[in-house]
Amino acid sequence: LDVAAISLVLLAFGCAGFIGNFVGAFLAERDPKLAIIGGSALMATSMAGLVLFGASPWLAGLALTVWGMAFAALPVGFQAWMVTDVPDRPELGGGLLTAAFQVAIATGAVAGGLLVDRFGVLSAAVYCGTAAVIGLCLVLGMRRHRAARDAACYAA
């Protein structure tokens, strides 16, 4: 991509991220985990699209734009989930969430850099998509576990 195209993709990424905040809030109002599930699924899909169709500049730009929207929904969902689960200590929850984000960013940067050095640029997209799928599975599993636990509590 030339400089103008990169600028356009970054602009689209940012605009999509702005929209993703509102989409995340819409989903989080119903259930905070929905924003995380939706964002993770969309992120994994966009990374699969980037790996499969990244040779096309337009499709790569579209995949990155979708990724921007998906990624922006995640912090909204995580923050809403934290406030819902720890309503009496939002500062503690916010601090833990910030620390978790920082560790995740550092770990992702190191792992992504090592992957790119060893296997090439597309390995970072594969890593991102795989991490999104793993996160999606974890949240879905937690959601099912909590639903089963709540049903057992109400039955007793």
Task: Give the helix/strand layout.
Elements: H1 3-30, H2 32-53, H3 57-85, H4 90-119, H5 122-155
Helix pairs in contact: 1-2, 1-3, 2-3, 2-5, 3-4, 4-5
First-residue to last-residue Cα separation: 61 Å
Summarize the main sheet.
Answer: none
Instruction: Indicate the mean pLDDT.
Output: 90
How large is the radius of gyration? 17 Å
Give the helix level as a range of percent: over 70%
**Secondary-structure-derived class:** mainly alpha
Shape: elongated
**Structure annotation, total helices:** 5
Query: How much of the residues is beta strand, in percent?
Result: under 5%
Description:
The protein has 156 residues and is mostly helical. The protein is 92% helix and 0% strand. It contains 5 helices and no strands. The chain has helices at 3-30, 32-53, 57-85, 90-119, 122-155. α1 (3-30) packs antiparallel against α2 (32-53) and α2 packs antiparallel against α5 (122-155). 29% of the residues are buried.
For the structure shown, list the relevant keywords.
mainly alpha, 156 residues, 5 helices, 0% strand, elongated
Summarize the structure.
Helix content is 92%, strand content 0%. It has helices spanning 3-30, 32-53, 57-85, 90-119, 122-155.
